[in-house]
Amino acid sequence: MARPTNGPDGWWLALLWVADGDGVISFRDVAPAAGPPPEPPAVRLGPRFAGSMSGLILEEAGRLQFRVATASQPDDPGRPWECPLAVLVGVRFEPARAATLRPNEQAEAVLSAFRVAVEGLARP
């Protein structure tokens, strides 16, 4: 994870990725064994990621204040899983919960949730 930053309106922003000895892996490397689903990986990753952070994310006007997007687009839009497993994340933390966490604990919570979400991509 790159060093997070606090953006406008209380958004916590970071770049996260998964790498092995050869560098950043592809989303395809963590797709289900039967093959990647037709929707883009962020569609599957986002809800798992947010769910893994249950209670930490601010809800405002009935919407979770959480955003995730792939950091780069695939060369072929028809093969959305063929791009680096790197995401941009924006979170507005629930103020009462955030007040009890140091910055490194917030980052650790996000990294743990990211790990759970990535591991879940292989499941149908």
Concise summary:
This protein is of the alpha+beta class and 124 residues long. It is built from 3 helices and 8 strands.
What brief labels describe this structure?
alpha+beta, about 20% strand, about 120 residues, 3 helices, two-stranded antiparallel ribbon
Beta-strand level of the residues, as a percent range? 15-25%
Structural class by helix and strand composition: alpha+beta
Question: Would you tell me the overall average pLDDT?
Answer: 93
Broad shape = globular
Helix content: 25-40%
List how many beta strands DSSP finds: 8
Along the chain, the helix and strand elements come as EEEEHEEEEHH
Residue runs with pLDDT of under 50 for 5 or more positions = none
Strands side by side in the biggest sheet: 1-2-8-7
**What is the terminal separation in angstroms?**
26 Å
Rg is 15 Å
Mind describing the biggest β-sheet? 4 strands, antiparallel
